[in-house]
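Table S2 (continued). Query chain:
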Amino acid sequence: MNRLLAYQRSWWRGDVLAGITVAAYLIPQCMAYGELAGVGSVAGLWAILPPMLIYAVLGSSSQLSIGPESTTAVMTAAAIAPLAMGNPATGATLAAVMALLVGGLCLVGYGARLGFLANLLSKPILVGYMAGVALIMIVSQLGKVTGLKLEAESLLGTVQEFLTHLDAVHPPTVAVAGVVLGFLIVLQQRFRRAPVPLLGVLLATGIVAIFQLDRQGVAVVGEIPAGLPHFVVPQLMVGDWVTLLASAVGIAIVGYSDTVLTARAFAARNRYKIDANQELLALGVANIGNAVFQGFPISSSGSRTLIGDALGSRSQVFSLVAFSILILVLLFFRPILALFPKAALGSIVIFAALRLIDLAEFRRLAHFRRTEFVLAIVTTVGVLLTDLLVGVGVAVALSVVDLFARIARPHDAILGRVEGLAGLHDIDDWEGATTIPGLVIYRYDAPLCFANVEDFKRRALAAVEAEAMPVQWFILSTEAIAEIDITAVDALAELQEALQAKNIRFALARVKQDLYAQLRRSELLALIGADYIFPTLHTAIEQFYQQNEIRE
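Corresponding output:
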């Protein structure tokens, strides 16, 4: 919004070009996502209208393109299909309710300032999750691109049914889908700024019209309702709202994470800042706006944002330009949209899915750290073997487990001196490094809390036992310990008692003011002694030498 208020005339050309091209790109793409969500292609177009206007006013990103997106579309389909039972009207109502719930959850998150939740999905988890979603998207389009009527509801069931009915595929439908998919892959590599999906669908529409393939069984979108979406408050039984709530939580987490990550990437590229909490507000209001105008849950689109950026978008004026073009298309060009082959829309979904499978990132994870790669693979398998929305829970749970594993068993170090190198260093890192006789300087590289206190005590006492000479002082370097909880307070007291029983003085060094205040409130300060709390390692070592009458 700030950029709209301070708009510069020099931005106009880039915003207009970006808006026109993004509009050409999103029309077939959003129609395909409407089909993917199970609410029909025209609903995919309707679902772009309120979010564009709302985000232009409330969003903090100058370039983000918001609207129907593949991941939230397929998650919506997975949630509403069991309740809709094939009824299009019921499915549309369920999708609108889902958007309302997602929007409400985002607003609750905004009020509670929960923007940090976007960080719950780590990079390996996101890579694996997106790969799983992509495979589900591809399988969901097998019927559209082959002309088969697949009735199985599970992923494995759909694949099995597809493989057992290969002899019944419809060759013209497969041909149309194959031509469009090949066209998309080849042209997107060579012309990254071009509205390739629109060109692909127009090509398919021309092929169907010239060879009259619709008369040979190639399905087309068909008649599109006249006019624009109208205001309707979705009505459902209370039980259905409760049933959809759990799914809405998953969609909100994934949709918000995708929005913030995309917005951050383009903000960093173009040197401006976004407000993660403001994005919660914008996404929430946009989803609620969609809910009351016959839409479904939406998020951001990385591909549309990338196209806008490549063509020079500098503000949300590009979204307003795309909005205006879409209104004209819905009012005056519906007959052309009605001729779009469904197989071509299915190819667009498959094309988008292929771009979600980041093989290069899998290779990078494997090269960087095996555990990161394993996390990504486990997430992908978890998404494929469970319900898609359960997969969100699996992904978040794995992220939390990974986080706790790092906190529960962090790196630690016994510090010593290295000849010819100033300062103190981890003796395991340097050959020939030695500890100071009679002194153990121990560093634990994580905040102390309930999750790691037993590990901390065990390793701290092991550091004392590992010394060849009798230990007189044990100094805990607290540079990574910004705060402690009550469990850590008790653990430090127990460590102090264990050291005292061995006639070893316990001291703390590099103590920050916040930690010092916690030590005072917990009475640990009195137990350890204020004279043995040091701001630096140098002062602690100096005191050790003085008390033991040792010369350096």
